[in-house]
Amino acid sequence: MAMHALTGLSLVSLLSFGYLSWDWAKPSLVADEPGEAGVEQPSAAPPHPPHIIFILTDDQGYHDVGYHGSDIETPTLDRLAAEGVKLENYYIQPICTPSRSQLLTGRYQIHTGLQHSIIRPRQPNCLPLDQVTLPQKLQEAGYSTHMVGKWHLGFYRKECLPTRRGFDTFLGSLTGNVDYYTYDNCDGPGVCGFDLHEGESVAWGLSGQYSTLLYAQRVSHILASHSPRRPLFLYVAFQAVHTPLQSPREYLYRYRTMGNVARRKYAAMVTCMDEAVRNITWALKRYGFYNNSVIIFSSDNGGQTFSGGSNWPLRGRKGTYWEGGVRGLGFVHSPLLKRKRRTSRALVHITDWYPTLVGLAGGTASVADGLDGYDVWPAISEGQASPRTEILHNIDPLYNHARHGSLEAGFGIWNTAVQAAIRVGEWKLLTGDPGYGDWIPPQTLAAFPGSWWNLERMASARQAVWLFNISADPYEREDLAGQRPDVVRALLARLADYNRTAIPVRYPAENPRAHPDFNGGAWGPWASDEEEEEEAGRARSFSRGRRKKKCKICKLRSFFRKLNTRLMSQRI
């Protein structure tokens, strides 16, 4: 009884942390101009098609925005969301590459071969070249397309680069994790290189500028040099707030009383990013884009709780299929919305942006094109019912199998040892190993984690199937798998249906040719078309030889390959 009372007291105390005030009169550290007030608006652009600004943040937790009760200051995001439509039934993927691939293709991971993990810097892998990307579709509709920020969809060939996949211009990083000032990225001991690119060239001269500020300034320059009469697509993929935890000192000072050091740095990074969004919005108004624009804000996955992020009160964290890993922050802000200032509970997934934005641009995209996304603009703008009724979160056959799962446990329909997750209606099913399933309160204490955190820890259960009614239990505290075997069976059948449409996983071995030392000290493309054909031929020969001969050394190689895969998955 005492334990429950203490738990309740801790949770209530944590929920009491309010949203802090903000001085809107204070000049921004990001802006090119002194402020937004008094800016004269140029004449509005033609009403159709609209300018599209998609802002994606990296590792921002569900709790880490003011309108979700956070202790972090995000006045710009709060205001834009309040004046637009908050998406409170919005889903993304649990890690970086999968969310970005599904955004730009409108397809689930099982339909692009990117079911497993992320694309690592030394892998000869990228977003499949046969996929028509969102910016390419918008180019067909007459749009000028620009990307600023983090790519993380592969770069081993030049054909994989953003400027070859539909973007007219690009400024940003190709890998998934760089220093915010030096733009160095290490993919293991001694494997380090510079990663800031402009177009297809290395941008050595821009080193030293904090990436969030640099990217916001580049967006302002694009808007200043572009005519509002031509439709514009801006994809702003901030590096923030991914590790390393780095922030300008001015932002850290605001959180000097915050006891937890990681949370303090993380909070400063979030507030800096919020001001960057403020100045992007201001630039849209200043240069005549705003009145005919659609601004979409989205996180890419759940927050990393041991690096300052918080998904409270959701379960889990980045890299897991619990709600804390896949429930996204999202809203739409636009003068073109028919019903503003409201919260939408319509089911929306990150794949839906592809057909939705293509539709807004006057193009066509549908399930007939092989898409898994739906056009959800009527649901967002007018409050209509969402056409989406289910989400395949993923099926990853390479992830380490759960010890207690089996085909027999899955009624002979599905091997429950395989990591998978699906949402159908109000029901969510997880199989295999979904990842760490703790409820982690905000890191408000200096000594985190501490013994008090153990009050919300989950002992590792000997199971491989979980079922939740997400509508009634969004925090995933009551597992109903034992009570509703009928629902479990139905959702396992849906997983099996999806799996029949999956293409083989593409997760190739790392190539030593990718080392930055062979590319002048920078990360960049290293493979030619001829080399890729040779590599594919070697892979086919190895596959044929493996079928003909089994040996001890082959088994040993297989063991270490699987071990390496597991270690990389845990590192993520």
Automatic annotation (TrEMBL):
Top-rank taxon, per record: Eukaryota
Keyword Metal-binding part of the UniProt annotation: yes
Domain Sulfatase N-terminal: 50-362
Cofactors named for this entry: Ca(2+)
UniProt cross-references to PROSITE patterns, sorted A to Z: SULFATASE_1 (PS00523), SULFATASE_2 (PS00149)
Record keywords: Calcium, Glycoprotein, Hydrolase, Metal-binding, Signal
Molecular function per GO: metal ion binding; sulfuric ester hydrolase activity
Signal peptide residues on this chain, from the entry's feature table: 1-25
Keyword set includes Signal: yes
Entries under PANTHER family matching the protein: ARYLSULFATASE (PTHR10342), ARYLSULFATASE I (PTHR10342:SF68)
Entry similarity comment: Belongs to the sulfatase family.
Protein name: ARSI Arylsulfatase
Source organism of the structure: Crocuta crocuta
Gene transcribed to yield this protein: Arsi
